[in-house]
Amino acid sequence: MNENVVVSADWLAERLGDIHIVDVRDAWEYEGIGHLPGAVNIPFDEFRSADADDAGMLPGAETWSDLLGNVGISEDDTVVAYDDMHGVFAARFLVTAELYGHEVLHLLDGDFSAWQRDHETTTNAPSPAPISYDVREPESSPLIGREEVEAAIDDPDAVLVDTRDPDEFAEGHLPSAVNVDWLDLVDDESRGLKSPDELRSILESNGVTPDKRVILYCNTARRISHTYVVLSSLGYDDLGFYEGSLTEWTEADGKLERD
Question: Would the pTM count as exceeding 0.90?
Fold first, then answer.
């Protein structure tokens, strides 16, 4: 993702009607509480695998193509996603889009609650005509597997980042991992990201620096999506996205450390 992946509410307000907005909240929230003008609804659970053995992972190219095409989005459109949880669910949507070859992607800084403080919302849902959406191979992919994670554990040029909360981290984490709770990167008042200087301070104090290979994991790849977007916005370009995360690691009897 590019460094301009995160956009402000004001930036988006100036472009309503010119770009595609995706609301990833549940349908009852989208319909009952309201949404951004022009936004279509693709709930979070619809773009995660329904396979019990692969819960939370990618939905499959055909499913993704249908989801986007059915709401009138093509593979070349500019897309902005949002939720009402500081962007963590929306970030997962954007990472999924990137992995299926979509290139022009943005995360709304803040969320629905932050937007409605100063901007218009509506309960009127658009009715876009379905179109064809062609999934493409991305030019490069951040996805990594277990073997690369294992290699990074003892690599001084790599850092493993556990994005879960400190209690989860203490109960068991990958060897040599550092803990950067994804919520520590969010400003409680604005509901968006902390300032770039604050973000860099938090990351660098934990050894997460741009000169290292950064390997991200959580439980089921939701929280690392948010951190992946944040790091991308700060110019980190050597990122490994361990989609299997601890779910895969523990199923394969991977070693854990405990604090």
Answer: yes
